[in-house]
Amino acid sequence: MKIKVFKIGLDDRHLEKDQKTLEAFLESHDIIKVETAFVQDEKYWSVVLYFDELKIVQQNVVKDSKTAKYSAEDEALNSDELKILEALKYWRSEKAKEQNLPSYFIASNKELMSVAKYKPAKKEELRDIKGFGKHKIENYGEEILEILESI
């Protein structure tokens, strides 16, 4: 097991860059455990990731359709999908408060939009959505599916 520490600055000039760096790392590694702490004096999140070996990411290779991930980032949502998205955002906000994490650690807006558009019915179908890996599905899959069933 390896460890990597990230500093996520909350000011406008660092937040987006730091978040993209973290997201890129999360997409290319198998995360085992996450620990966070807010550093009040300097106003940033310290994120400690425990991970296993690096996933092999091939550059400039067209992915086989079986491994392609669904993403609704360029698609407009209809009114029903917008209701689902709002419910998912509310759940994410509550979950982030409960776990003392920034909301984007739970799921990004693009990931929630993709869930609202794709409407998976089983945990296995969450794997088809870009950004949903083993860790996210194990931790949040059941709750996401319950939200989708309730709307």
TrEMBL record:
- Please name the SMART domains in this protein's record: HRDC
Entry's InterPro entries?
Answer: HRDC-like_sf, HRDC_dom, HRDC_dom_sf, RNase_D-like
Q: Which residue numbers delimit the HRDC domain?
A: 78-151
Read off the Pfam families from this record.
HRDC
Q: Which GO terms describe its molecular function?
A: nucleic acid binding; nucleotide binding
Domain of life per record = Bacteria
Gene3D superfamilies attached here? Answer: HRDC domain (1.10.150.80)
Q: What is this protein called?
A: Aldolase
What is the native source organism of this protein? Candidatus Chryseobacterium massiliense
